[in-house]
TrEMBL record:
The lineage of its organism: Bacteria, Bacillati, Actinomycetota, Actinomycetes, Propionibacteriales. One of its GO terms (molecular function) is phosphogluconate dehydrogenase (decarboxylating) activity. It comes from the Bacteria. Keywords: Gluconate utilization, Oxidoreductase. InterPro entries: 6-PGluconate_DH-like_C_sf (IPR008927), 6DGDH_YqeC (IPR004849), 6PGD_dom2 (IPR013328), 6PGDH_C (IPR006114), 6PGDH_NADP-bd (IPR006115), 6PGdom_BS (IPR006184), NAD(P)-bd_dom_sf (IPR036291), Pgluconate_DH (IPR006183). GO terms for biological process: D-gluconate metabolic process; pentose-phosphate shunt. Pfam families: 6PGD (PF00393), NAD_binding_2 (PF03446). This is 6-phosphogluconate dehydrogenase. Belongs to the 6-phosphogluconate dehydrogenase family. Residues 160-293 form the 6-phosphogluconate dehydrogenase C-terminal domain.
Length: 301
């Protein structure tokens, strides 16, 4: 199989290597000429035999939309575009319509595996018609782990990215649970070997996972995580998961809370917590960490 790959960053570059190792001929394009195989998107398309398949691995949002638009002008009927980035599933529906009007197929594919994917394989969740997915199957087979790790999530555009979105929402909640447990073990002067406790959970327990493995690796290197700031970004997929839950009236207590916890991490001094401290002082004379507000130095009750 021949395939074009647009975007050769941390994920895309490793995916190019894994596909080549799996027997797929890959022509890669990136704005960084040091890693690119060709000098332009036009050259990439020209280098591919027909029907042409181009996999897009650029940041979600405008960069992906613009790349898909450009490919729509360069490709022809019977060709195919794969969006393997972290696009919102609603974008897939628009992109599929845009390309479909020109007879160009579209497959959306959620990709999980991070920097370890080159070695371990990538989990792939794709959406699109049976015919279009079949065109990309050799690339999927090269990228996925030796066993499992691939699913054709649905035939409608967006099915793959919707599945990946929910996957990431669950990931938010799992990470938050591990993090809160670690903080409690660190806080209470009772357990001597917190890192060893987490390490022991990696075998035989019902909460073992790859995320737990990664946390243990991190605390083995920095036992109290002193080198890391308590600030966590979000990729956007946690937000989209909560938005979809609201739109479909699905209760999502834990994933929503884990998303909001990341927002809290970005505040040096929470305005909401200031208001709570002030109210507690007003009604109950509870201690505050600054001078009490007027009227708040005595319990009115």
């Amino acid at each position: 199989m021949h395939i074009g790959l647009v975007g050769l960053g941390k994920m895309g570059g490793n995916m190019r290597t894994r596909m080549r190792d799996g027997g797929v001929t890959v022509v890669g394009f990136d704005r960084n000429p040091d890693v690119s195989d060709v000098g332009s998107l036009e050259e990439l398309v020209e280098a591919l035999p027909s029907p042409k398949v181009v996999w897009v691995m650029v940041p979600a949002g405008d960069p992906t939309r613009e790349t898909v638009r450009q490919l729509g002008e360069l490709l022809g009927e019977g060709d195919l575009v794969v969006d393997g980035g972290n696009s919102k599933y609603t974008d897939d529906q628009l992109n599929a319509e845009l390309l479909g009007a020109k007879g160009i197929g579209f497959v959306d594919c959620g990709v999980s595996g991070g920097v370890w994917g080159l070695q371990n394989g990538y989990a792939l969740m794709c959406g699109g018609s049976d015919e279009d997915v079949a065109k990309v199957q050799p690339a999927f087979d090269a990228l996925k782990p030796d066993e499992g790790g691939f699913v054709h999530a649905g035939k409608k555009p967006g099915a793959g990215h919707f599945a990946k979105m929910v996957h990431n929402g669950i990931e938010y909640a799992m990470m938050q649970s591990y993090a809160e447990g670690w903080e409690l073990l660190e806080k209470v002067d009772l357990v001597d070997n917190v890192t060893e406790v987490f390490d022991s959970w990696r075998s035989g327990t019902v909460i073992r996972s790859w995320l737990l493995d990664l946390l243990v690796a991190a605390v083995e290197e920095d036992p109290h995580l002193d080198k890391i700031a308590g600030y966590a970004e979000d990729s956007g997929e946690g937000r989209w998961t909560v938005e979809a839950a609201i739109e479909n009236a699905v209760p999502m207590h834990v994933i929503a809370a884990s998303l909001f916890a990341r927002f809290t991490s970005r505040q040096d001094d929470s305005p909401a917590m200031k208001a709570i401290a002030a109210m507690r002082n007003q009604f109950g004379g509870h201690a505050v960490h600054t001078e009490p507000p007027v009227g708040g130095d005595a319990n009115p009750g």
